[in-house]
Specification:
The complex is a heterodimer of chains A (620) and B (422). In chain A, helix 11 packs antiparallel against helix 22. Chain A contains 23 helices and 16 strands. Chain A has 620 residues and is an alpha+beta fold. In chain B, strand 2 and strand 3 form a beta hairpin. In chain B, helix 10 packs across helix 11. The relative contact order of chain B is 0.15. Classes of the chains: A alpha+beta (620), B mainly alpha (422). Chains A and B meet through helix 2 and helix 3 of A and helix 9, helix 13, helix 14 and helix 15 of B.
């Protein structure tokens, strides 16, 4: 480049030319934009602008049959624009801002007035912020009449949720004022302080669909706080877009019935439709009236519920993790058959209470085959099944065998979340091989971890996961990840995860064997749930009586019905309810009857369950 | 001691005064954009305007230190500085913090730091250092490749951070490469304009229409060549083939390569989507804010559009709106003229340098400043799609203030030292 330098020097002209040309183009553009075009100058200097957020109607929620579960009610938020108030206070007009009268009108004291004003100022000095939210209809009429005297204040209509049936509080969830934390996470910058956002349940998981899109109306107001019309002919206005309606898989009647059955007991019922994975009933007990968490009393009620020793705010269907007990034998049995470690004809010896290393709590013949073992819930049989699975020579060693076994449970939906549309789901626990390595210093075998074979020890499941096992067997080998939604009010497709069949890879014939086995739990002469057999509805199920550190056994049950083409699969867990057949099995059976028949005929049983109370110590 | 005193006399005060004017305008604009009556002092360090003052102070101090450093330092250490910032771009990729979709920040306690702002300066230094070596000749293939790599490496890393805006700034090195005689850069500059034109027209008129237009042009050209039997037929064929392929791939590139928000910004700019409430919102609001300023503006602190938060990012990327609303055409014209004056001044100073290093560096930073100014102001007045890069010396932000100041100070130092070079 040192050659021909003069030649290159001239290149500065093109470069400078481009710089100057762009500068000139921009100056022309600015001149036309700022001086020639009058379009942008309609802003009258004396008029203040009022920005009224147009809140869209939040989507309504229906049950699977179109029964309304959640709708909106109008409430009124008193908004304030701090700058306009300050100017009105400073100005010596004929109509000075009278703070005292204003406080009387709102029934607040001066300190509260100042505190609210400061909160609004901190949010924004120029933009409106909520001064008092959710003013009742009566107060609204009264205050609105006088508001012309108080520049800077205006009402904004907004809706709150109302729950006509007062059921399924945890499933429906609630909305509340957005928190600082949620505001920080809002990358789209959609929310403002004071906005409402879904806090739990489907209100949270479908927040984006339900909320719609906010609109904006820009109004000119004069110094007397009167609206003078739309600013710039509404060019800045934005129409709100209403939220989408939701149809849930929930059956409102079944849900209500389940909640009645659970009164006085702690625990959960989860029911799904096996052919779709839609949740039919999602009961957690104790529960509460969702209408309590609406309106200005929300905070008080929330704290009461939060401090309740029975912890009604917890959704035990997804947050409660329980030892599955004998219901887990279905899982153990299926994996044992699939791995080729046992066949339906395999018999294991059982010496009843004298069996080693796990004793049997049921009395039956001494060498049961699979069918007998599942009907009688034979502990040694399933311990042996578990043992032969992980010791199966085809895996090389026990640790590989265990990995296979854990992997299969994972595929069946255990030890992990489904991640569909249920917030705060917990994964439960199927321990990893590393966990045992660490715990036993690498020295462990099938005897060390024998409790897994009968659903005790480290294994923990949520009622939702357990219900999914029932659905898996009902479907003879596959499931759809359980989810709450049935469809949107419009044609929006459901997320793929909910409509994709999951097949853990267990041969249909083994699941069928299991299914037949579960049928005998009701129909067999020694079936553990034979007391709840119905002539016209062939039910299948498995009892579980789970030891736990909190006292009496948990009463567990999984079930589905009818045997051919099952319509409902469910899991019931009653904390400290004793035997699986005492509480969980009859509750499951009543739920099945209610759903399939539409009514129940076993009045005595129903009465015993509904009026039954289990006493708990105040410690959970 | 003597030398230190004389630096005051030797530095180019025109450049420095333009710089100080822009910084001051920026600071007052930030004050106005973020003004809060509860914090009415411009020295309130809890507010953006107070913080910006701290950054201005740090930047001025840094600039002063650079003026005291030996001018040869930057040439001698140019490669080290370059590799340091290249490495820091790597670090950002691995540990960076995502803001607005781009991962371009490193945090040191309370201080956030954006290496891509400094990488531009480092690249300018490296390129100047390399091109000033006596054994380097831009007519040689190897030297061309290395020069190109020096620019493309940081550009690629910034692109990987998903910071498209900052990556585009590296295109500005085309100016200095053109000035230093890198073959083909003139063609690329012209070709770039043609490509942008084709791209825009294809999106506006659809591919079909473009095929017809190109086809008829091609027919005309072909007849012309066949009749006159002039040379260059194959070149012409090549050019048309390229243009056809380009038009053919525009749709694909537009739909598959660009991300949705980028597509929307382009469509809005082209008037393909008229959606003042949706994706066009920012630009629409920004134009209203600037347009409502009129000839003389609404006056300091009297702007309403920017204060009502109509314009997003008003104190960072959209600071020019505040200038336009409160200063009117007088204000915006002053700022535009100050920038043009600064750019032309840098080019003129660069041409009077005896050392290649200083000249290359001067051209490089003029290019960087130009692209920043052209894109940023262009976006606020609706001439360029929305690309989030700061307006030099005006936008709020410590990294950019510090980086641009250091960048300019190094050049002023080189210029002050020019007579010491034989």
């Amino acid at each position: 480049m040192r050659t021909g330098n003069n030649n290159l020097t001239n290149r500065k002209l093109l470069v400078m030319g481009i710089f100057i040309a762009i500068g000139v183009i921009y100056l022309i553009r600015l001149f036309s934009l700022q001086v020639l075009d009058k379009h942008y100058k309609q802003l009258a200097d004396n008029n203040a602008l009022r920005f009224v957020t147009q809140y869209p109607a939040r989507g309504k929620v229906y049950d699977r049959n179109g029964k309304l579960l959640v709708f909106n009610e109008a409430v009124y938020d008193l908004m304030v624009t701090p700058r306009q108030v300050n100017e009105a206070i400073k100005k010596d007009t004929l109509n000075p801002f009278d703070t005292l009268t204003f406080c009387h009108l709102l029934e607040i004291d001066k300190a509260s007035f100042i505190e609210r004003m400061n909160k609004a100022k901190n949010e924004s000095y120029f933009k409106p912020s909520p001064f008092m939210t959710q003013v009742s209809k009566e107060n609204y009429a009264h205050i609105a009449e006088m508001l012309y005297r108080f520049p800077g204040f205006f009402f904004q209509t907004r809706t709150v949720r109302h729950y006509p049936n007062a059921i399924a509080a945890h499933t429906l969830g609630d909305i509340g004022e957005i928190s600082k934390n949620e505001l920080d996470k809002d990358e789209e910058n959609y929310y403002r302080q004071g906005d409402y956002i879904g806090k739990s349940g489907i209100e949270k998981s479908y927040e984006k669909e339900l909320r719609g899109v906010k609109g904006l109306k820009v109004m000119m107001v004069d110094v007397h706080n009167r609206e003078m019309g739309s600013f710039m002919d509404g060019e800045l206005d934005k129409e709100p877009v209403a939220g989408k309606d939701l149809y849930l898989g929930l059956d409102a009647e079944l849900q209500a019935y389940g909640e009645q059955l659970m009164v006085g007991k702690i625990g959960s019922i989860v029911a799904v439709e096996p052919s779709t994975g839609q949740i039919l009933a999602f009961v957690t007990s104790p529960t509460y009236d969702p209408n309590l968490l609406v309106g200005r009393e929300r905070g008080t009620h929330y704290n009461e519920l939060k401090n309740d020793p029975m912890k009604p705010l917890i959704n035990r269907a997804i947050s409660g993790t329980y030892p599955p007990g004998s219901t887990f034998k279905t899982v153990v049995g299926l994996i044992a058959m699939q791995s080729g470690s046992i066949t339906p004809a395999t018999c294991f010896h059982c010496s009843g209470p004298g069996s080693m290393p796990i004793k049997c709590t049921h009395s039956h013949g001494s060498s049961p085959d699979f069918a007998n073992a599942i009907m009688n819930s034979c502990n040694p049989y399933f311990y042996e099944s578990f043992k032969t699975t992980i010791n199966n020579p085809k895996f090389g060693n026990i640790k590989n065998g265990y990995d296979y076994w854990k992997d299969m449970t994972y595929k069946m939906g255990l030890g992990r979340k489904f991640n569909t549309d249920i917030p705060y789901e917990r994964a439960g626990n199927i321990p990893s091989r590393e966990y045992y390595d660490k715990m036993y210093g690498g020295q462990w075998n099938s005897v060390t971890i024998r409790s897994l074979g009968i659903g005790q020890g480290e294994v923990l499941v949520t009622p939702l996961q357990l219900c999914n096992i029932a659905a898996l067997i009902a479907n003879e080998g596959y499931y759809y990840p359980p989810h709450l939604i049935k469809c949107f009010g419009d044609t929006t497709a459901l997320p793929e995860v909910m409509t994709t069949k999951v097949d853990p890879g267990i041969d249909k014939k083994y699941v069928r064997t299991m299914k037949q086995g579960l049928r005998t739990v009701f129909s067999g002469p020694a079936g553990t749930a034979r007391r709840y057999e119905l002539k016209d509805i062939p039910q299948c199920g498995k009892t579980g009586t789970a030891q736990n550190p909190h006292g009496n056994y948990h009463s567990n049950f999984i079930a589905f019905a009818p045997y051919d083409n099952p319509k409902i699969a469910l899991a019931v867990i009653i904390e400290n309810g004793g035997y699986g057949a005492t509480w969980a099995a009859p509750i499951a059976s009543l739920m099945i009857e209610k759903y399939i028949r539409g009514y129940t005929v076993r009045e005595d049983l129903e009465k015993r369950i509904m009026e039954g109370r289990i006493s708990y110590k105040n410690e959970r | 001691m003597n030398e230190r005193n004389s630096i005051i006399g030797k530095i180019d005060w025109v450049t420095v005064l333009i710089y100080l004017a822009l910084v001051l305008i920026g600071w007052f604009s930030i004050f106005s954009a973020k003004y809060n009556e509860l914090h009415p002092s411009i020295f309130d360090f809890s507010m953006e305007y107070g913080k910006q003052l701290i950054w201005i102070g740090i930047a001025l101090l840094m600039g002063f230190i650079i003026l005291l450093i030996d001018a040869k330092f930057f040439n001698a250490f140019s490669l080290w500085i370059y590799f340091f910032f290249l490495a820091s771009l790597f670090v950002v990729l691995v540990y960076g913090k995502a803001t607005n979709g781009a991962t371009s920040w490193i945090e040191f306690g309370p201080v956030k730091f954006q290496p891509s702002e400094f990488a531009k300066m480092a690249t300018a230094l490296a390129l100047a250092g390399y091109l000033s070596r006596l054994d380097v000749d831009l007519q040689k293939r190897n030297n061309q490749i290395i020069a190109a790599l020096l620019v493309l490496a940081p550009m690629a890393l910034v692109l990987l951070q998903n910071d498209t805006g900052s990556a585009i700034v590296f295109v500005s090195f085309i100016f200095v490469l053109y000035r230093e005689g890198f073959p083909g850069t003139g063609l690329v500059m012209v070709g770039g304009v043609v490509a942008i034109l084709l791209f825009v027209l294809t999106l506006v008129w659809s591919q079909k229409v473009m095929y017809i237009i190109l086809g008829s042009l091609f027919a005309l050209a072909l007849t012309y060549y066949l009749v006159t039997k002039k040379k260059g037929l194959f070149k012409m064929l090549g050019i048309f083939a390229f243009m056809f392929v380009f038009v053919f791939s525009v749709d694909y590139a537009f739909n598959k390569v660009l991300q949705e928000h980028q597509r929307n910004r382009v469509l809005v700019l082209l008037g393909q989507v008229d959606d003042p409430q949706g994706v066009g919102y920012n630009v629409h609001q920004s134009k209203i804010a600037i347009g409502s300023g009129g000839f003389t503006g609404k006056g300091f602190l009297q702007g309403t559009q920017t204060k009502y938060d109509f314009v997003p990012e008003q104190h960072t990327d959209f600071i020019f709106c505040t200038v336009g609303e409160e200063g009117g055409f007088l204000g915006t014209a002053v700022v535009v003229l100050l920038y043009v004056a600064l750019l032309v001044r840098i080019i003129l100073l660069a041409e009077r340098q005896r050392s290649t290093f200083s000249r290359v560096y001067g051209y490089a930073i003029a290019g960087i400043l130009f692209v920043h100014v052209a894109i940023n102001i262009g976006m606020t007045i609706g001439l360029v799609p929305v690309i989030g890069i700061p307006l030099p010396f005006l936008s709020y932000g410590g990294s950019s203030m510090l980086a641009f100041t250091m960048m300019l100070a190094i050049f002023v130092k080189q210029d002050a030292n020019r007579l010491n070079i034989l």
